[in-house]
């Protein structure tokens, strides 16, 4: 049995979940039970209440709350005092902590250890840094953040955590714990190995104190993404082969000690994979540890298919005859799931967008778990008083044993009340780790405590009345709270539809298209035939320019819809002809669809006549018109998106087009042109001319009547075209050139190394480094350089280099022999001149032209002399002022993309302003420009602008005309006189 698709209408699913609960739950009765608990918490707040009230006063949505969160996320990991001071000043400076008359940070500190008295006397926080000395304020802030961390972490080591647990059991003897070893997911094999040992040690420690059964013993929660550096669907066979035995070793250890081992829930795109891992492990439990009843997994109610997931797990347990412990949570990655669905253009959200829908789902799932008591011992993780009461009610009816779970540091007040009933069982999810590892976890907790919609946040807010706090969630909001991904850009323009390659039913049509997509052979144009072709185009273009802009736009829109419908075929063609990986192919088809729709909208906007104000008696109208015949020359590295973008821009504005695609990728261009012809673009208006750049390309540029040239490719060829145009007689011809660059990323010591490693690997090595935006130069602050380099090296080693038609492949071949030889030559030079940080990995014999990711340490920015178009990264350590590094990058003369990784917001702003670069990306990768969202194009040697996919682009394809009419010419000023 496979799970249903996660992408289905939210409302339909909610109606179904509500039906499941019908007649099974008396919400009002549950609310009556919960009301006294809530009142008791408010009357008698638990320890640490200060933090909750702090977040009530400064919710995460406020500048102060955000500053607090930013400091909590970054400050503890900054190794150098200078940067720590800059970060603290930046965050404290942008927030108005004084608003309530006393600095919140002081209060935060004082609430815990009275730091305020020593370091932060009342007064203004505005001049805090100056008055007290920067180091003192940073020390106090550090301490405050550490204390925040202490609220949520049981101990730095498993031993100290178990000691704290023992303390807690003095008050509540029945309390059990599930330990969680904190940290980011593994990026490298070493990371995975380290986590494995830490889990082993933790289980051994827990086992040493276990003496009951699974329900009474403490247990452990494990994250599969911590145990494998490539825990993702595309690496399915490898995950099954490598991860399953590793987890099984932990399971055996847990089984022998009869403790609960829970596989934690992660992102939606890993769900199917985790189920396969789970199934394989269940089979082993059934065979080798049949007495063990402590195996289980966490289930997220916010997923729209949570209920089916529970049915699936129940079925598996029954098939294998294994009893499980299953934790039901609401889900911790909601914001990330929403963003991913929007970015990928998915048909629906995989999670509920209304909080109360998740609450409904939670209750329906709870019921399903209680109904499966023959194989499942349910563990309900919630801090919501009403949900707790509702579950108690349903469980009492079913007569099923279960336990509650809460996070350490949260929900203490409510559970203090709930546990007054000695029959109620509660387990505490207890994170264990050093400060460095708790930051991401801490931020999640701050978000949860600080979000206005969260129960714990409202509980701490006495202005929220009991009735509102305990209001029934059992009603339907018919529309999602967020626009669907397709509607992201409003009514004017649909977002392109994407594909979730981790879902079998979504990717299968693409894989099926591969064998049925032969790459057609095309015929090259004889340059001698070009003058006649030009004449035909010019004639046809005179008609095309008179076609109303709305009709031309419609032709592009129809083409966009058709391209979207033919996505599998075009993806297959991109994989075969341009050696794109599947992910890159989908992104490229989507970009082409977006270009077509965007320029359709833009043409209608910019070509509308503008009436200009002036003296009475005349009208003044500004008009844009087509220029004539454009030559569009494009590269092989985005043979569909860049090609379609150039052509669509020229056509939308009423121009004729003579297009020359790169000689390496003619078939993709041919397919696109055929499609445009089929949907209303006349064949003489848009003509495709195949052939070499030096012959056909150059001859096109040389045609006497050419009205403009739009070129994307190397700086070198752009210069050749510029000179050719300058040498021509006749009108001055505009050139839009988008060329290459030496793209850099600057990383300071506040950056998160895992985030840097992800961004670098994606930007430098993915797509075989054959993007114009690809990262070529990484400048990393010397105090964190060793660790960051090590992580990138480890992550790069995990990349799969090979046949792009395989889903598992991350890095396909470079485009041809010439490109391959070029890169080889550069690498040979670097091997002599620079320090080799990443020796080449062994490669498969097939296909040809594979280049392994490489990384070299250079001594100066100026050592970078030209763009190397492949997966080759240069690394530079810097110290001192980051501005100086930007100045050196500027001096290279290129200016396409720049990455900045820092948590100091004012620094990011200042560096972005200083950089002479077209596209700046902060705290993310530097690739993947989005049409209408991140218009793309560079400065200096990197191009002329205007940016492709931006609001100024079409203007360059047009001529401007003002028409002034003397409206009094016929004898008098009728308008003026009529107004008297
Ligand atoms: P290229 O410059 O070799 O070729 C680009 C196009 O120009 C091809 O169609 C080619 O046939 C044609 N051409 C070559 N010589 C010509 C001539 N004398 N007259 C007219 N046309 C000629 O580039 P490429 O190798 O295909 O592409 C890679 C380059 O493109 C890299 O430098 C990359 O950075 C750049 N690029 C830039 C952007 C951007 O948006 N800035 C996007 C993609 C690629």
TrEMBL record:
GO terms for molecular function: L-glutamate gamma-semialdehyde dehydrogenase activity; proline dehydrogenase activity. PANTHER family: DELTA-1-PYRROLINE-5-CARBOXYLATE DEHYDROGENASE 1, ISOFORM A-RELATED (PTHR42862), DELTA-1-PYRROLINE-5-CARBOXYLATE DEHYDROGENASE 2, ISOFORM A-RELATED (PTHR42862:SF1). The keyword Ribosomal protein does not apply. This is Bifunctional protein PutA. In the N-terminal section; belongs to the proline dehydrogenase family. In the C-terminal section; belongs to the aldehyde dehydrogenase family. Coiled coil: none annotated. Residues 162-458 form the Proline dehydrogenase domain. Residues 518-963 form the Aldehyde dehydrogenase domain. Keywords: DNA-binding, FAD, Flavoprotein, NAD, Oxidoreductase, Proline metabolism, Repressor, Transcription, Transcription regulation. It catalyses: L-proline + a quinone = (S)-1-pyrroline-5-carboxylate + a quinol + H(+); L-glutamate 5-semialdehyde + NAD(+) + H2O = L-glutamate + NADH + 2 H(+). Its cofactor is FAD. Pathway: Amino-acid degradation; L-proline degradation into L-glutamate; L-glutamate from L-proline: step 2/2; Amino-acid degradation; L-proline degradation into L-glutamate; L-glutamate from L-proline: step 1/2. Oxidizes proline to glutamate for use as a carbon and nitrogen source. Its EC number is 1.5.5.2, 1.2.1.88. PROSITE patterns: ALDEHYDE_DEHYDR_CYS. It comes from Hydrogenophaga defluvii. It is an enzyme of class 1 (oxidoreductase). Residues 51-152 form the Proline dehydrogenase PutA domain.
